[in-house]
Specification:
This protein has 228 residues and is of the alpha+beta class. 33% of the residues lie in helices and 24% in strands. Strand 4 and strand 5 form a beta hairpin.
Length: 228
């Protein structure tokens, strides 16, 4: 059973296709912790064009199953949250994700183990390209954290990485921006990362115009309503 892939045709074949996702090669940042440690180590030694299958035992992947992570939760707790539990339902309780195993009387049995806990995992890896040039590395990082380069400008000046773009493209959370900066410090020879949002006069004026028009219409409506 395949649980994840970067290839759309395989996702469709295995019944795990997600239409909200873009299936494409991912940028692997060695040493950042994006992959399991053993996968990281194997990727580090691979060359462009090389393929490899990496097998991981449970202890090196999602861990062994733990009986203490299977809990019985009172049905009233679900009712309080306006949730109707049924076997197979994936829920989030107190910051932990689990799957309902059974519902009996006033009790609900929930398994909080990772779905792949206790299983050996195989990763099929293929390195398409090793990115060496600093500018290309910077562009690859931007694509990884901001989706694509459309409308964004990235450049390196001395020891500083500068990313500029419209605010609509850079609406990531502070945590995501921090991850982008962390990755840049790992991959690039820079000491500073600057993310600059560019606000367009045309866009702002259009927004003000729309807002003003809306307020004028609302005001006109209120006046007319008052006359009646």
């Amino acid at each position: 059973m395949k649980f994840d892939t970067t290839l759309e045709q395989i996702a469709v074949k295995e019944g795990i296709f997600d239409e909200r996702r873009k299936y494409k090669p991912v940028v692997a940042i060695i040493g950042q912790g994006n992959f399991f440690k053993k996968v990281d180590e194997e990727l580090k030694g691979m060359n462009a064009g090389e393929k490899k299958v990496v097998k991981l035992e449970p202890k090196d992947a999602f861990g062994e199953r733990r009986s203490e992570l299977v809990s019985v939760v009172a049905l009233k707790e679900f009712k309080r949250r306006k949730i109707t539990p049924f076997p197979g339902l994936v829920i989030d309780l107190n910051g932990m994700q689990g799957k309902v195993q059974s519902v009996s009387g006033g009790r609900v049995r929930v398994d909080f183990n990772h779905p792949l806990a206790g299983q050996s995992i195989e990763f099929e890896l293929e390195v398409l390209e090793k990115i060496e040039a600093e500018e290309k590395k910077a562009e690859a990082l931007v694509e990884r954290y901001f989706g694509d380069l459309g409308g964004l400008k990235v450049k390196i000046e001395g020891k500083k990485l500068i990313l500029e773009g419209p605010s609509s493209k850079l609406m990531n959370t502070d945590a995501q921006r921090a991850e982008f900066a962390k990755a840049a410090f790992i991959c690039l020879d820079v000491n500073e990362v600057a993310v600059a949002e560019v606000f367009s006069r045309e866009v702002n004026e259009a927004k003000r115009s729309d807002s003003g028009e809306s307020k004028a219409i609302e005001k006109e409506r209120s006046v007319e309503k008052g006359k009646k």
